[in-house]
């Protein structure tokens, strides 16, 4: 049995070999990672545990503060930004015994689906290097898929954990907004930003979530809602759960093979004792429009001075997409806020009837990098099934559920009512006990 130091060395060596071509990491932290792994080995030899993440290698998205290590959010103007303190989520990782291996590349300023950044270059999908890893947490998911680390932290404003998880054949959780602190994270939209875990196994996603979740009195976005000790019940199964299959929006215009894989996954969950129910979700397409207006307006508030006075300091494609927020009117923002109230009430009624809403995470698998679409068009298309849940602030889990004929991963999205992450994680674990899609390795690793 290998030591934590030995397994960490294997992953560091793999990153050193592959990162120059894949651009998954913006900065490796080999010295501190080795020290963390040695500490885990010493504790184990002494019969002690460092916590839930004892010895687990984890990367951290490059918009999350790490003390003494550059946090750039992929932007040239933040290239020399070195925080003096860890973000609360990073503090919690360290206290739980994690081995932090480095900072993961991302879409610049967490604003796009391709995960190109000025500080990290074009991150590439390990399953096919000509394809995107998704965004904005592309490096976080690609690093897990490429086996640079066991887990990662990403952020999700409208799909930025779930889509990269989908495109890279791994698992990713967007928690309920307010469940996990976002203090120390370069913001996009504080009304929608979340920090979420990514790993191959849902059981590992659950452990990371259990560590990072919880109230932060210094973070006004967090809610003091108890998480509870749910980990002992991860294997409880989903017998008796009602799973809703939406009639509208989510299954429209899918790439061949995606709908079939997702419905095969639904049948696996049915075999676990769940009941499948057709449901109506008539406002989902409108939710995408209103979420777009809210997020675009919020991000322009965050970067307004730089966007209007120093746009040359931001990559042109990001400026082009972000600038659309400058044209969102106050009336449109008010309409989005009003719609959000109606949308939340609609979903509350839905979740009174079913426990889980099931859909494809994305309508298709990872697009090619040079697909000819603008960043605005590409991101709008990719986020069709993820924006709606984000606008309502509900939790969502993406798990791999198959491959297309071209050999690209397909993602299954499971969403639930507010604070019901443990139920989603139980469903994900139950599904992965019956399937092995999460264990499939990208071709370059075989």
Give a brief outline of the structure:
The protein has helices spanning 4-22, 30-45, 88-95, 138-145, 162-168, 202-212, 258-271, 284-302, 304-309, 316-322, 330-353, 375-382, 387-392, 421-434, and strands at residues 25-28, 57-61, 99-104, 116-117, 121-122, 151-156, 171-174, 194-199, 242-246, 275-279, 356-360, 396-403, 409-415. The protein is an alpha/beta fold and 446 residues long.
Count of DSSP H/I helices: 14
The residue fraction in helices comes out at 25-40%
Strands ordered across the widest β-sheet = 1-3-2-6-8-7-12-13-11-9-10
Determine the strand fraction and express it as a percent band: 5-15%
Name of the top-level CATH class: Alpha Beta
CATH topology grouping? Amidase signature (AS) enzymes
The major β-sheet equals: 11 strands, mixed
| CATH H-tier superfamily | Amidase signature (AS) domain
- Number of separate structural domains: 1
Count the beta strands: 13
Please give the alpha-carbon distance between the first and last residues: 22 Å
* CATH architectural category: Alpha-Beta Complex
Radius of gyration (CA) equals 20 Å
Average pLDDT confidence is: 97
Instruction: Give unreliable regions as ranges.
Output: none
Order of helices and strands: HEHEHEEEHEHEEHEHEHHHHEHHEEH
Overall geometric form: globular
Structural class comes to alpha/beta
